[in-house]
């Protein structure tokens, strides 16, 4: 039996194939109502995305995750009050959110901003304005990983 070699290009360009009929719940944390609407519209075009909730602060996000379960969380890095980095760090302390994909979405572009995002516990760092193709590919990877982990957990 021959093993198939997988290149890094294959990994970057795969399509998420749903392993179940589950639709994933999303929380958007951003103080800009217009960006919330844009991201909600973008996500709602994905068949694997179900309910989408929006809040406009880190404090609201922490309150929300205490009563709701989310599969994917998008957080703006720069918000009044608790910023996205602090919010992400706090979310990672909750048992139900230790492995949840958290995507930092921000207008900040420096390598130190991305490093701070990783240190805070984010899974991905996406800059605004969102580039649709790259965003779709990232979202496909996130959904694939969620479904793969669920498949492994069933074994």
Helix-strand blueprint:
Blueprint: H1 8-12, E1 24-29, H2 33-44, E2 49-55, H3 58-67, E3 72-76, H4 84-92, E4 102-106, H5 111-120, E5 124-127, H6 132-154
Parallel strand pairs: 1-2, 1-3, 3-4, 4-5
Question: Would you give an account of this structure?
Answer:
This protein has 155 residues and is α/β, with parallel strands linked by helices. It has a single domain (24-154), classed as Rossmann fold. Helix content is 45%, strand content 17%. It is built from 6 helices and 5 strands; from the N terminus they run αβαβαβαβαβα. Helix 2 (33-44) links the parallel strand 1 and strand 2.
For the structure shown, list the relevant keywords:
Rossmann fold, 155 residues, globular, alpha/beta, 5 strands, 5-stranded parallel beta sheet
Which parts are unreliable, with pLDDT below 50 for 5 consecutive residues or more?
1-19
Number of helical runs? 6
Average residue pLDDT: 87
**In the CATH hierarchy, what is the architecture at level 2?**
3-Layer(aba) Sandwich
CATH top level assignment: Alpha Beta
Q: Please summarize the sheet with the most strands.
A: 5 strands, parallel
CATH topology value: Rossmann fold
Which structural class matches the secondary elements? alpha/beta
Based on Cα principal axes, name the global outline.
globular
What portion of the residues fall into strands of 2 or more residues?
A: 15-25%
Q: Which value, in Å, is the CA radius of gyration? A: 16 Å
CA-to-CA gap between the ends?
24 Å
- The fourth-level CATH homologous superfamily is Response regulator
Strand order of the largest sheet: 2-1-3-4-5
Q: SSE order in H/E notation? A: HEHEHEHEHEH
Number of DSSP-assigned strands: 5
- The helix content is 40-55%
């Amino acid at each position: 039996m021959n093993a198939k070699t997988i290149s890094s290009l294959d990994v970057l360009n795969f399509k998420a194939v749903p392993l179940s009929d589950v639709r994933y719940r999303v929380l958007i944390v951003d103080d800009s109502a217009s960006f919330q609407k844009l991201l909600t519209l973008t996500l709602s075009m994905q068949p694997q995305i179900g309910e989408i909730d929006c809040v406009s602060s880190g404090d609201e996000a922490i309150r929300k995750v205490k009563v709701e379960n989310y599969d994917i969380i998008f957080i703006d890095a720069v918000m009044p009050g608790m910023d996205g980095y602090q919010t992400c760090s706090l979310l990672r302390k909750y048992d139900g959110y230790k492995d949840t994909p958290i995507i930092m979405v921000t207008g900040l572009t420096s390598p130190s901003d991305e490093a701070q995002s990783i240190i805070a516990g984010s899974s991905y760092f996406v800059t605004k304005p969102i580039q649709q193709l790259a965003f779709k590919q990232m979202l496909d990877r996130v959904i694939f990983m969620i479904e793969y982990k669920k498949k492994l957990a069933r074994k």
